[in-house]
Amino acid sequence: MKKYTWFLFLAALAAGYVLVPEPSDAAYHVLDGKLRIKGSLYEFMMYRTDLKREERQYRDTDWGLMRTKGTLELLYKAVENKDVMINLFGFFQWWHEGVPDFDQEYKRSIERRNHKRYQGPFYDQDDWINELYADIYFGNWNIRLGKQIVFWSEVEMVRTIDRINPLDLRYTTPGIDPWDEMKLGLWMMRGFYNSNLPGQLVFEWIWIPGDFEQVRSPMEGTSMGAIPAPQGPKYRRPRPFGQSAAVNRMFHRARPAFTLRNSQWAFRIRGNSEVSLFGEIYLLDWTVSWYHGMNSTPVARNKTRGNPTGNFNIRTLNGYLTRNAFPSRVLGFALPHLTHDSFWRYKFFDAVGASCQTFVPALKGVVRGEFSYEIGLPINKAYPLHIDPTPGGEKPITGTSERDQINVGITFDRPVRWNWLAQRWGSSGVLDVTMGWFGQWRLGNVTRWRSTFGYQDRSQCNFTLTVRGKLRHNELWPTMRFLYNTRNWGYGVFAMRYTPGKHMRYELGYLWFFARDPHDSKEAYAENKDSIYFRIGYEF
Amino acid sequence: MKLFRIFSSCILGVVCVSLVHAGEVRFPVPSYEGDELRNVREWEKTWAGKKITAENVDQVKEYLHEAVYKAVKEPSIFGAESIWFEIVPYKPLPVTKGMIAATKKHAPGSLDVNNDLVGYGDVAGIPFPQPTTGAEMAWNFDSNTKGDSHHIIHTGTVVDCRTRHERDAKQLRWEMRWMGRYDVPPVPKFSKKDNPRDITLSFFQRHAAPADFVDTTMLELKYKDLTRATDLWVYTAMFRRIRRYATSQRTDTIDGTDMIYDDQDGWYTHLGHNTYKYLGRKDLLFARHQDPAKLERITGQGFWSGVQRERVNHWVVEVVSKEPDYVYSKQVWYLDPETWQMNFKVMYNRQGQLWKMYEMYTNVYPSYGGEQTALFNGEHIVDFIRHHGSPGNREIKGIGIEIPLTLFQVKSLKVRSY
Known about the structure:
By secondary structure, chain A is mostly beta strands. Chain A has helices at 3-19, 53-56, 99-102, 104-109, 114-119, 179-182, 243-253, 317-330, 419-422; strands spanning 28-30, 35-48, 63-80, 84-97, 129-138, 141-148, 186-194, 202-208, 264-277, 280-294, 299-300, 344-345, 348-360, 365-381, 399-417, 430-442, 449-450, 459-468, 476-485, 489-498, 504-515, 531-539.
């Protein structure tokens, strides 16, 4: 019943808002304007249109998601005088994912202890707090203390330097949903010094004193995740807790302690400088950054890794995974008990990055670029293909190592005027067109790099295209978005957002995925997740 | 004797030149003087205080722009049962001492071969108090600094007059002139140290509505270099990113209103983008002493009723973009003869049809040093083809106020934004 408390609260708040006199602002102000209240209530429905036969046996319906989400944003001006200003900001959320409530086969595909974690904000105790921090201003200083989400990226769809907050991918797809929908807040101290130096330099630093979130991969058995595998005898399907669920549980157990020793750090300088090139003045918005933090996916702990072959000892990682896969799942024996041994370890790595954006008069558009060099990215090792031909994610782990990795992203925005459209359907006639290129290079030897996605790939190359329009005076927002990877996988999104008035919001869209090899990347793995989605919401 | 004649001729010549020169810098120039003013007062005896509706609008048609006449005559196209306005007596608008002093000091200005103002940024005041060409009038319009700085709260509504759907937009806006200043020190411009990038005009804006755009901020910088594109940044709170905008986005509509970025305050971009042709003077009824409380409309009405119009003898300029496929085939500006603000403009589509009209209402507000400055306090921009309107209000929070220069920096976009 508890899970409905928030919903009722938000519903009551929304109803109350409707009943009180209309405020002049979109948000609602109380306490002499000191407290601003804002929020939303959304229902997101996703209907799968390309369920494969092997997945269909784990579903009663084709519904992929039916998520009710409420948000409440509070901004309180605590102190406001000439010298100091303190604002308290809170962004709270509640959601309920409803498909397991009416699809019993679907529900049975998900490990029982994950039901609650998946269906609501219960993965962690503070999941209902998206952000909560004190925002303090004095002189040129700004300090933010509390749970926060940091946005360091300039480009869309692909992530390069924007690494501070890990992602929750259980209900969303990278590149399709905005990053702010996916990011997990972290408790941190964040400071800014707005200098008066040339270039309008802003110095920013972040200290995360031990708070850690692992990346929340799509849960096994859920629509966004894999089906429980290996599947095993037909009469035992659906049988939850496949390899993916086992690994996920181990990842969860291996989370590092909330101690200062696990502090993560980041530092960034932001500037705005004029550069003269070929007689043209370019005003550059640039950043350089450094990040020292834990990778949000762990590597095997060598002490408990165990022998990679012929190992059935469940007190070792390789042994446990072999036992879970073969006798238990394939042959139908009882699932092995996961001991409290910690098989995995989250390790630190460093990343230096830079970004820049500028308007280029000759191109009549804006060029944005990001670059990051990841140093000492922890990886798991496995036997190379000529020794063990099994796929990358199924190989036993033979050890750990570190690699460097380079990520680059460049986008070009150019609004395109289409005068024919300007006279029709209330459009301004301007289409926002964004083209992008993203590259990733894994440095060093990749033949022993054990990875589920992009196994043995030395580089990845993506091309993106986004076209956005506005019709009926911004009531209708058609959007098309494509990503093509040179390994022949990608996706497309066709969406129409409808914002008829002050509060109600609607969106209808279609997601189309394709992949030659679904193991090329996480996005390619979604190749059978084509779906129609509908979002309806109320903003206040 | 011959020598005396030459000497006398020289003296006379100097005196004549001085007199002509003195005539050139006559400023301010009221809209009506002498017989013209007497005629206006005579006309006002009949019409001042009268409410004009569709029933009696024909009687004042000669003093209405065809677009306004059409809206009053056929109110249903803008979602109203009746659109009315009131006629008020002509009253000259005050001009600040600073504007007069700067005009007397720097006028008359001159234009170069590209029709750009010579010394742009370094001179202040109205450069051509007695203009003869459209370009000179356009520069006069550009030289009104609106108190050098001001802070307003703008509330606008996007109205679909057919469906009666409405969507509100609200912005807090700070605007400042960095060069060509005449009211607030430093005049005529900030030092190079304070303004190393030679900014001439800037605004910072924070959105308070609609809900999806709350905390979105905008910054725009316009430079002294007339060939340099205006820079525009938008921090979208929804995505928490600072996005640089391209120049071509200036023809995109703002928040779904009927206004494009170039339309702000009549024209917000460098004058060099257009050619200007003087069409003559036009005696028309527009609002220059508008009490905002008197503006009214019903839900779904895209055109204000309750406008207080007075007769003003406008300078009319036809404006054509140098860009061949610009969104408007032409605009016609109606410039105020006293303040050189734009009171009204009409825009034509690529097919040459009347597409939109933008009417700006003014009133007089206290400004720096106890002066009085005329500034817009309301507007409506309406679309005659799609029957759409964007009525708005501007609450004047301060004119000639001190605004920290740091507000107009990119880093300000994210400060105090959530």
